[in-house]
Amino acid sequence: MQKLYIIKIGGNVLDDEQVLNSFLKDFSSIQYPKILVHGGGKIATKIGDKMGIESNYVNGRRITDQPTRDLVTMVYGGLINRQIVTTLQHNNCNAIGLTGADGNVIKAVKRPVGDIDFGFVGDIEPKNVNTSFLYFLLKQNVVPVFAPLTYADGTLLNTNADTIASVLAIALSKHFNIRLIYCFEKKGVLKNVDDEGTVIRSIDTAYHHQLLQEKVLFDGILPKLENAFGAIHQGVNEVLIGHSADLLKNMGEETEGTLIRK
Amino acid sequence: MQKLYIIKIGGNVLDDEQVLNSFLKDFSSIQYPKILVHGGGKIATKIGDKMGIESNYVNGRRITDQPTRDLVTMVYGGLINRQIVTTLQHNNCNAIGLTGADGNVIKAVKRPVGDIDFGFVGDIEPKNVNTSFLYFLLKQNVVPVFAPLTYADGTLLNTNADTIASVLAIALSKHFNIRLIYCFEKKGVLKNVDDEGTVIRSIDTAYHHQLLQEKVLFDGILPKLENAFGAIHQGVNEVLIGHSADLLKNMGEETEGTLIRK
Description:
By secondary structure, chain A is of the alpha/beta class.
C-alpha cells in the first residue's frame, strides 16, 4: 500500500509565526501523500478577549457555549486554517482547508450531556469519516488541512485535534500505509523528562507494558501513548511522537523522535 | 453541454438568518450542478467594531489593511462560509467551503497601488481559475461554496463577490451551459424602480442598447447590466437578476426575474 503521512500540530507550532512558517516549508517538501491537522493554540483566547467572549470552565474543562462556538469557527476554521492553506500554496503545496462539514468528511455526534454539559463539542468515530472523498482529493495531489471542527445536525462542533488525527488515520488505514505524526514540544518520548538526550527511539506493545511497569515515564506522556497504541491496534502502521523542527528527520526508518509500532 | 447554476448572494440574504436559511433550503433542492458565491454583509463590520478594528475609507472606497484582512478571513472565510456549508449539509447538499487559495481555485493579482492603495484586495481573471479541480468536484456531486477571498504571494485578498461569480462563470463556460444568477433586493430589472410589477422579463444586447438610449433604467442597475453583458460576451449563456425568495421560480425558461441573453 502507498504511504500516507498524517501530521498533527498544536499550540507550540501555531502560536509562533516563525516556527509555523518554517514547519509549513518542511511540510510542503514531503513528497508523499499527506494530511495536516491543526489545533487552536492561544489565538482564539486572545481574539475572544478582544471581543468580550469569556472562556467558561467546569471542573477545569472548557465549555463550548454558542459565542465560543462562533469564535472557534472564525479562528480555527477561518483565520488559522485559511492562512495555513495560503502559506502552503505559496510553498507550492496544493492544500485545501476543511472542517468536518466540508465534503461531509467527518460527521460527529454532539457530546451527550452527562454530569457536565460541554456544549458544542463533537465526538467522532472512524466509521463516520468520508474516506472516499479524502481518497479522491489525495489522488488529485491535493493536501487536506483540517481545522479542529466537525459537525452534526446543522451545527459545527469543537473537536479535539489529536482525536481528529487518529480517527482519520484509523479510517484511512484501509487504503494507505500510515505514519501518524504528533508534533510535540519535546524531541520524543523521554526516559528522563528533563533530558532531551534520552529519547526512546522505538516502542512496541511489549516494551510499552514494560515501561508502564517500571513507571519511568512522566504522567503527561501516558495518555499520548495510550492513544497511539489505540490507533496502532485499529490498523494504523506507525505513530511517531517528535518535535516539529525534526519533521523531515522523522520521515524515514531512522528517526529523531519516538516510533511506535505494534 | 450540461447545465451549471452559479448563484451569488449578498448582504440582503446573509444579514437575516431566517432569509438565509430559507434560501439555503431552496438552493439545496436544485437538482443541477451548482456553485454558491457569498459576499460579506454587515457581519464583518459588526465583529470588527467589537474588536476595535476600524473601517478605513479613501474617497468612499473601503481599504483592506492588515487587521481588516484578518477580520474578513475570520468572518467571510470562517464564520459565514463554514456556517453556510454546515447548513447545506444539514439539507443533504454536499457542500465544500472554498477561498481562492483552497485547491488553488482562484489565483489573484494584488491590486497595484495607483492613486489609492486599496491594500489586500485581489483582482482576478478567468484564466487564473483552476477549472479542472472545480470540474472534478462538480462531477463528484460536491457543491463549491465560495467566500469572497482570493490569494496571491502567500496572502489572502479581499475580492468582490460579484466578480468572483462572473469570473467563475466565464472560466467554466467551456465545460458547462451556465446560468449565472445574481440575487438582488428586487424581483429583477424594473422599468419603474418604484414598482415591482414592472420587471423586464428578458433583455438581449439590442434591447439593452434601446433601454440605455431611452434612459428609463435607474442608475444602480446599470453597472450590473454592464457586468452581465460582459459575462455573456465571454461565453456565459445566461445571466439572471432576481430576488433570492424567487430562486426556484428562476430556474427554468419562465422566470420571475430578468433573464439576460446575447
